[in-house]
Specification:
The complex is a heterotrimer of chains A (about 240), B (about 290) and C (about 350). In chain A, the strands form two sheets. In chain A, strands 6-7-8-3-9-10 form a six-stranded mixed beta sheet, sandwiched between helices. Chain A has about 240 residues and is α/β, with parallel strands linked by helices. In chain A, about 35% of the residues lie in helices and about 25% in strands. Chain A has nine helices and ten strands. The longest helix of chain A has 17 residues. The longest helix of chain B has about 30 residues. In chain B, helix 2 packs across helix 3 and helix 9 crosses helix 11. Chain C is globular. The chains are: A alpha/beta (about 240), B mainly alpha (about 290), C mainly alpha (about 350). Chains in contact: A-C, B-C. Chains B and C meet through helix 4, helix 9 and helix 11 of B and helix 1, helix 7, helix 13 and helix 15 of C.
């Protein structure tokens, strides 16, 4: 489904991402891992149009989306959650998701109807499936960190994507929270037949649920394959065990 | 048009430019460090002028007159800057830039009326210090000595300020604060002190320029607004936080204004704002600035 | 960074959306039809008040529309414009020029003012929304000063520094056939017309703010990056908001030109942009009715203070300071906070 080919990006003299190629098949759960500063977030930003690559291409279902505007890429079916929680802080949880539905269904040109009346059922449904139905009227900025992450996921799902890019979905979470979040993600991915690409620090999580792992180090892919293959790769062991 | 009058026009523009350069430097400095446009910079300038006049009234009997008054004015405004920063500005740092801008605007309103209250609405003036009275003939145009003095001293002071910023240890700290305040905080540097210091220095510069302009310009209410608009345009054209940017911005502004009046009287007013708009559209960070 | 921390801070302190009414949800605040009462009261002013009262009320009404249009940018979309008076001015000049110089009837001149402002807002807005916050503010200011410079110097069209005195009243003869209105002076008849036009405009803006379009604007305000990644073409929406806001500012300006019997260049000076911004924040930019409340407060305060002293700027500056440091939520924000505290005390 998603094919990244020879992507590079430099900032000043610093090569953040260097000739990275990656393929994610439809329905697959894939992960990109690597030490801090390996270029994972940059790679995500390149895929989702927040950054233009210096070279290389990104194709989605054989359509070239290299450097397209983020809102276009979203409409093409990629949903994304961000590393630093990115929600609409002053809107309520309900309004956050409702807004996403409004955009997704192209209601933006509507200057007349009352927005609060639209998509109430869909919003409630999504809220229930991500477990935030109790907090529907809470102002998003006052939610706990974990809940904000859940909302973040909800926002990504509201645009009914075919593929989800999750940037460190369990960052800053306790072991229980991480477990719950991963279960939730797996469940939703299964229900909606989503393709998943995520980055993570937590190795247990990664090896548990991924079908395919790509390892980034200093902007380059040093390993790419099934969890067993990656675990056995000597280069990966050197980077991870030698580095810490 | 005769070469000498062209030259005269050019020199007139240059005087305006160098003078603006001194004022705009302070504005540019504050923006470079604190990322906020201090609308009250013009008010500090005006207070410098009024305090200089006041100083001349007080010190004149003692004979040191103008220079003492200028220093008195600059220091006075510097102290005001310290008070403003410590008491008020400080508490606005974490908040939205809009609030900081509105605060400086509130200062403009308050200081403007305070000056009116203390010194009234009539035009005041200060006579040129004796040592700089008179004029010189250059290329057939008459240049007042005092104007030439400004043309030299203005850049000199500004240059000195920027030198401190770029070559000394203090300067390095300040530039670091500009780049990452939190990091510097955690390193133990007293960031608050740096910010106050920069603000005080910038206010000092504003007060000094206000004082120095008094021999060639009358002191009137409204001079604060007039100058801040011009300084603002200069800094936008040249680039905020850039020494050379402010310099060239001032020169461009001064000359456009000076020659614009020749071409079409109403045109220069329009042209400086149009120039500002064009720069913002094409290269928002100014000729010499860096993208934010 | 600043925007992140302040977003969470303001989320805790401020009400959820740009359209909330004070004390919404329960109690007397929402059961009494306040806006209808205010409208009826406003219409009654020529009968129950003096000529000066009508003058003040008209000033307040026009400023209310102007401030509400600014708040569409500031409070709803998060766009800080320092040059909003440009659109007010364009509207005033278009309507004034059409009515005075070309003797076009109000019925055509008024919408034309809106149209003219829309065009100018589209063009200027196109360049402005491409810029980040700070530069956006500066470019709006630059455009506003360009309009001012043109107004000030283009003697042939705008009257230059003399302006356009004696803009005529619209033809209000039709009002003489309406029972109550026929006893009024022309200026009072225009007042009624203005109030009605402003009320309709406010209703339209209110509708827009509560619409899906308005909701999307609030997402842009809260988090433009995230908005883009739920599929919002941020620039396009900002441009749309900018244009709509400009149109209503222009309509306010058109009415102002007739109300003050003339259009002059100093209407477009940047200090007016500051004034309308202060009005908006004074009332409370998180509330739809904040700006009108702010307009009422500021106009009333202005006339009360200037009776005693010439130092109105000093007073205004002090009010602004108090606002910034003690009541960032403005009047309605303060009332809302007090109301909430009262309710929780009663429950306890």
């Amino acid at each position: 489904m998603l094919e990244v080919s020879g992507i590079s990006k430099s900032f000043g003299g610093f090569r953040a991402v260097s000739d990275v190629s990656l393929t994610v098949e439809t329905g697959q759960i894939a992960a990109v891992i690597g030490p801090n500063g390996a270029g994972k977030s940059t790679l995500f930003n390149l895929i989702t149009g927040h950054l233009r690559p210096d070279s290389g291409t990104v194709t989605l279902d054989a359509r070239d989306i290299t450097g397209a505007a983020p809102h276009r890429i979203c409409r093409m079916g990629i949903g994304r959650s961000f590393q630093r929680t990115n929600i609409f802080a002053r809107l309520t949880v309900f309004e956050n998701l409702q807004a996403a539905f409004l955009v997704h269904h192209g209601r933006g040109r509507n200057f007349w109807s009352r927005s609060e009346a639209l998509y109430r059922d869909e919003t409630a449904c999504l809220l229930t499936s991500i477990g935030l139905i109790e907090q529907r009227d809470t102002v998003a900025g006052t939610l706990s960190y974990g809940n904000q992450k859940q909302l973040e996921l909800g926002l990504a799902l509201a645009s009914d994507p075919a593929m989800l890019l999750l940037d460190e979905p369990t960052a800053g979470m306790s072991a229980t929270e991480t477990h719950d979040t991963i279960r939730l993600i797996e469940k939703i991915a299964g229900e909606r037949a989503l393709t998943l690409l995520f980055t993570e620090h937590d190795m247990d999580v990664v090896f548990q649920i991924s079908q395919k792992i790509a390892v980034l180090h200093q902007g380059r892919v040093i390993a790419d394959g099934t969890p067993e293959e990656v675990r056995a790769d000597p280069e990966v062991r050197r980077v991870y065990l030698g580095g810490h | 048009m005769a070469a000498s009058s062209l030259f005269g026009q050019f020199m007139g523009g240059l005087t305006t430019a160098m003078f603006l350069f001194l004022i705009a430097s302070g504005l540019s400095l504050v923006f470079g460090i604190m990322r906020v446009i201090n609308f009250a910079h013009g008010s500090f300038y005006m207070l410098g002028a009024y305090l200089a006049w006041q100083g001349v009234q007080w010190f004149h009997p003692t004979g040191i007159g103008f220079w003492a008054a200028a220093l008195f004015a600059a220091v006075g405004v510097g102290v005001l800057g310290a008070v403003v920063e410590r008491l008020f500005f400080r508490s606005l740092y974490g908040r939205e830039e809009l609030y900081q801008l509105l605060f400086t605007y509130a200062l403009v309103l308050i200081l403007g009326d305070a000056a009116k209250f203390i010194w009234g609405t009539q035009q005041l003036s200060v006579s040129t210090p004796p040592v700089l009275v008179g004029s010189v003939e250059i290329f057939g145009s008459t240049q007042p000595l005092y104007n030439l003095f400004i043309m030299v001293v203005g850049p000199a002071i500004a240059f000195g300020g920027w030198l401190v910023l770029n070559r000394t240890g203090v300067g390095r700290l300040v530039r670091a604060a500009q780049m990452d305040r939190e990091m510097l905080d955690s390193l133990g540097a007293n960031v608050g002190f740096i910010y106050t210091g920069m603000f005080v220095f910038s206010s000092f510069l504003a007060g000094l320029s206000g004082a120095l302009v008094t021999p060639i310009q009358s002191i009137v209410p409204g001079m604060d607004v007039l100058i801040i608009v011009q300084a603002f345009i200069v800094v936008v054209i040249g680039g905020m936080g850039s020494f050379w940017g402010t310099f060239w911005g001032s020169v461009i502004y001064g000359e456009v204004l000076s020659f614009g009046i020749l071409i079409f009287p109403g045109f220069s007013l329009f042209s400086v704002f149009a120039l500002m708009a064009v720069i913002l559209i094409v290269r928002p960070w100014g000729l010499f600035g860096r993208p934010l | 960074m600043t925007s992140e921390t302040s977003a969470t801070q303001t989320a805790a302190a401020a009400p959820p959306a740009g359209g909330r009414v004070v004390g919404s949800g329960s109690g007397i605040m929402s059961r009494v039809p306040w806006t209808l009462l205010v409208l009826i009261f406003a219409c009654a002013v020529p009968w129950i008040g003096s000529r000066y009262d009508t003058f003040l009320a008209e000033q307040i009404a026009i400023d209310a529309l102007f401030a509400v249009s600014l708040n569409l940018l500031l409070g709803t979309t998060g766009l800080v414009s320092f040059g909003h008076v440009a659109y007010f001015g364009v509207g005033a000049y278009v309507c004034g020029i059409l009515m005075k110089t070309y003797e076009v009837p109000f019925v055509i001149a008024f919408p034309a003012a809106g149209l003219g402002t829309a065009l100018f807002a589209l063009v200027s807005g196109y360049f402005c929304v491409r810029l980040i916050k700070l530069y956006f503010a500066m470019l709006t200011l630059a455009f506003s000063q360009i309009i001012w410079a043109i107004a000030y110097k283009w003697n042939d069209v705008t009257g230059g520094d003399n302006g356009l005195p004696e803009v005529p009243f619209p033809n209000l003869d039709w009002m003489n056939s309406v029972p109550f209105l026929s006893d009024l002076k022309t200026s009072d008849q225009f007042y009624i017309l203005a109030v009605i036009l402003i009320a309709v405009s406010l209703a339209v803006v209110h509708r827009i703010v509560r619409s899906p379009f308005g909701r999307i604007l609030t997402t842009i305000r809260d988090n433009p990056e995230r908005a883009a990644f739920i599929g919002v073409n941020v620039r396009l929406y900002q441009l749309a908001a900018f244009t709509v806001a400009g149109v209503f500012a222009g309509l306010a300006g058109a009415l102002y030109g007739i109300f003050s019997r003339g259009v002059f260049a100093d209407y477009v000076f940047w200090s007016k942009s500051a004034e309308v911004m202060i009005m908006t924040i004074l009332g409370g930019m998180d509330y739809f009715w904040g700006p009108p409340v702010g307009a009422l407060a500021l106009v009333w305060l202005n006339q009360a203070i200037t009776d005693y002293t010439e130092y109105w700027p000093f007073v205004l500056g002090t009010i602004l300071l108090v606002l910034l440091f003690a009541f960032p939520g403005g009047i309605l924000g303060g009332l809302d906070a007090a109301w909430t505290r009262l309710r929780s005390l009663r429950r306890a």
